[in-house]
């Protein structure tokens, strides 16, 4: 019974393509997040959703569009993929204050 | 300058050693301090968190925060090869709903 799950686990695609990553949590949490981890392992917040409403958008190019159909799901759609988008994308969730965040297994995106 | 600084390592210790991992931060508004462990090709796993200054112990792990010097530490006693991973410190403040991470320290515990 996975707490935070992501699909797909691996994504290899060419520059210019559009792709989506899906995230689901079964913890009953009210806040979900997308983080990007670069090749140096640095994790940086991209978006934060609380009760399906966007509350943080950290200077992410507008090629990235998150969507939260309900509190348990947060998807990330990326248009016109670029080489620099290659990274591991992590979904996370939390309840209340946001300091106890639980992460999914990650989606490793490679853009060629 | 990053808001949270962490020595990337790698840090190599023999099994049974006491490990000390450290971070410094610059934003005095940070109130919550977390330690995550990340195994290779896995998601970060929350080890423990501390609110404000003080110590917190959980088994072989002790987290310490000194807000006056903006210094965060994680001590691992009796380290095991299974502790080999990257350790990430993270901080936030009330209402921010996003974590600010250090760059992680890679730890190797040699059997």
Question: Would you kindly provide a brief summary of this structure?
Answer:
With 112 residues, chain A is mostly beta strands. Chain A is built from no helices and eleven strands.
Q: Which key phrases capture this entry?
A:
heterodimer; A: mainly beta; seven-stranded mixed β-sheet; four-stranded antiparallel β-sheet; B: 111 residues; mainly beta; six-stranded mixed β-sheet; globular
Topology:
The complex is a heterodimer of chains A (112) and B (111).
Chain A: E1 4-7, E2 10-13, E3 19-25, E4 31-37, E5 43-50, E6 53-57, E7 64-70, E8 73-78, E9 87-94, E10 102-103, E11 107-111
Parallel strand pairs in A: 2-11
Antiparallel strand pairs in A: 1-3, 3-8, 4-5, 4-9, 5-6, 7-8, 9-10, 9-11
Chain B: E1 4-6, E2 11-14, E3 19-25, E4 32-38, E5 45-51, E6 54-58, E7 61-66, E8 71-76, E9 85-92, E10 100-101, E11 105-110
Parallel strand pairs in B: 2-11
Antiparallel strand pairs in B: 1-3, 3-8, 4-5, 4-9, 6-7, 7-8, 9-10, 9-11
Structure in words:
The complex is a heterodimer of chains A (112) and B (111). Chain A is mainly beta and 112 residues long. In chain A, 0% of the residues lie in helices and 56% in strands. Chain A contains no helices and 11 strands. In chain A, the strands form 2 sheets. In chain A, strands 2, 4, 5, 6, 9, 10 and 11 form a 7-stranded mixed beta sheet that branches. Chain A is globular, with a radius of gyration of 13 Å. Chain A starts with a strand and ends with a strand. Chain B has 111 residues and is mainly β. Helix content of chain B is 0%, strand content 55%. Chain B has no helices and 11 strands. Chain B has strands spanning 4-6, 11-14, 19-25, 32-38, 45-51, 54-58, 61-66, 71-76, 85-92, 100-101, 105-110. In chain B, a hairpin with a 2-residue loop joins strand 6 and strand 7 (61-66). Chain B is globular and about 40 Å long. The mean pLDDT of chain B is 94. The interface between A and B is medium-sized, with 28 and 27 residues.
């Amino acid at each position: 019974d996975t707490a935070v799950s992501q699909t797909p686990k691996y994504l290899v695609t060419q520059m210019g393509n559009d792709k989506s990553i899906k995230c689901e949590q079964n913890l009953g949490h009210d806040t979900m997040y997308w983080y990007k981890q670069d090749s140096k392992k640095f994790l940086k917040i991209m978006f934060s959703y609380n009760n399906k409403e966007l509350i943080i958008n950290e200077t992410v190019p507008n090629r990235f569009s998150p969507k939260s159909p309900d509190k348990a799901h947060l998807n990330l759609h990326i248009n016109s993929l670029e080489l620099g988008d290659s990274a591991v994308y992590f979904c996370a969730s939390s309840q209340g204050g946001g300091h106890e965040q639980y992460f999914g297994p990650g989606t490793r995106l490679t853009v060629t | 300058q990053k808001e949270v600084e962490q020595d990337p390592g790698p840090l190599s210790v023999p099994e049974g050693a006491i490990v000390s991992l450290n971070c410094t931060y610059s934003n005095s508004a940070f109130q919550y301090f977390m330690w995550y462990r990340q195994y290779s090709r896995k998601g970060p796993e929350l080890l423990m968190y501390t609110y404000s200054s003080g110590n917190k112990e959980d088994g072989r792990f002790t987290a310490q925060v000194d807000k006056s010097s903006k210094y965060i530490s994680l001590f691992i006693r009796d380290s095991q090869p299974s502790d080999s991973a990257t350790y990430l410190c993270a901080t936030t403040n009330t209402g921010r709903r996003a974590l600010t991470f250090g760059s992680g320290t890679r730890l190797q515990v040699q059997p």
